[in-house]
Amino acid sequence: METTDVVIAGAGPTGLMLAYELRLAGVEVALLDGLPARTGESRAGGIHARTMEILDQRGLLDGLLPQGRTLQAGHFGGLPLDFSDFDTRYPYMLAVLQSVFEREIDRCATELGASVRWGSPVVGFRQDATGVEVEVGGPDGPRRIRAAYLVGCDGGRGAVRKLAGIDFAGTDATMTGMIADVELADPPAQPFFSHRRGAGDFSAIQFEPGWYRLVVQRHDRVLQRGTELTFEDFRDNFVEIAGTDFGMHSPRWVTHYGDAARQADRYRIGRVFLAGDAAHIHYPAGGQGQNLGVQDAVNLGWKLAATLRGNASDELLDTYETERHPIAARVLHNTRAQTALSRSGSHTDALRGIMRDLIDMDQVRQRLGLMITALDIRYDIKADHPLSGRRVPDADLTSSGGNTRVHALLRTGRPILLVLNGNDVPAVPQWHDRIQIVSAEGHTDHWTVPGVGDIPTPAAILLRPDGYVAWATDEPTTAGLTDALTTWIGAPA
């Protein structure tokens, strides 16, 4: 029987990102997918600021940026949200197809030794106190892999959640959206989101030279999963709502979706975890789904690695669910609201008018935009500092190695104790083999935290591998540092 550290079911964006994280930490993985090969289909079409920051933290962004287009605004229910003044190096949405994202992360994960095994669906498992025995199907017959952990990244209809008996409660679909990636003989002068007309709305955006993504949404019908949608069906529906087909031809892909919203009631049962769409599905409003899954993977990956190395206790793995479950619940909540805001009729028109006026207020625009981009996430870390639990700002620094920045320090995927502006380096010898200690000078006397504002540059901070602050202080003190190291890095050696 084959053995490995972690079996990952599903080689989409979430599974690939998890595989990369684990291999970066030296963890052995078996990355399985039931499909015979990658399809090239692209349900997702954009990457938000926080996901770009996370990719940058791992050195994965540079290869993606040239393959996408920057959009200075996103939307909430089709109402524009300007991101351009958000305090991040990436105050925009990167319009890049999921197929491009998968190809890039697949390449990087493969370089670390995490190649995908296609035609290998997970069809069963049993777990005990020391591991999980995973049954894998495929054309060569069933085989088994013994692992310490199994992670289901196999989508909303994936097998792992069902085999684990985890409930997937939520709301059924009330509408149908239809997508076609096509060429246009008579394209619109400008891309647009959610132009409302009659019983639905339509959108058009160019992702690649010559190729457009057209979307039409019908609020008066529901297509069941598995229903085939032909290109002719799509064009008929699009023309009925938009009044034109823009000369669409040469379809690359046609599909449909609904606004069903469901979430797993648990993300963990023993040694089995869920991430990405296997843990949550929702209406694709604001382009949040792929980003949510990638961030699940990064949150879980370093915790699995720390536990497998024997540094951390099993309790660290419980924080994956306690941190990520509320984030997905918030996405389901806001996408339901966006569905309601997108409906037709005079009542919704009145609501949209009021929402448009509110979004013109910076406080409302930033509240919604920071939520959509996930720049405002704050995990429940027991500390009083305004940085605690938040993503660390990507401040410019000068260290012994020259000019750098905070996010670049995270390329190794290790925790970092960053000591700033000549403050004394804390003596933490029990953790020296597990953390990277960096002394540096900041270029400003303040850092800007989205949704909070300017705060004084801290004296020292402890960074988790995912870029969230586990401990921070403005004074030359180590009060609370030992507790933070024990909680997030593991007991002292």
Question: Would you summarize the structure shown here?
Answer:
This protein is α+β, with helices and mostly antiparallel strands and 493 residues long. It has three domains: 2-170 and 262-373, FAD/NAD(P)-binding domain (3-Layer(bba) Sandwich), CATH 3.50.50; 176-258, Alpha-Beta Plaits (2-Layer Sandwich); 396-488, Glutaredoxin.
Which CATH class of the largest domain? Alpha Beta
The CATH topology of the largest domain is given as FAD/NAD(P)-binding domain
How much of the sequence lies in strands comes to 25-35%
* Sheet/helix structural class: alpha+beta
Contiguous runs where pLDDT drops below 50 for at least 5 residues:
none
**Overall helicity:** 25-40%
Sum up the overall morphology in one term: globular
SS elements, strand count? 30
Describe the protein in words.
This protein is 27% helix and 29% strand. The protein is α+β, with helices and mostly antiparallel strands. The strands form eight sheets. The chain has a six-stranded mixed beta sheet. It has a six-stranded mixed beta sheet with strand order 24-23-26-25-29-30, with helices on one face. A five-stranded antiparallel beta sheet has the order 15-16-17-14-18, covered by helices on one side. Strand 9 and strand 10 (132-136) form a beta hairpin. Helix 1 packs parallel to helix 6 (289-308). The protein is globular. The model has no long low-confidence stretch (mean pLDDT 94).
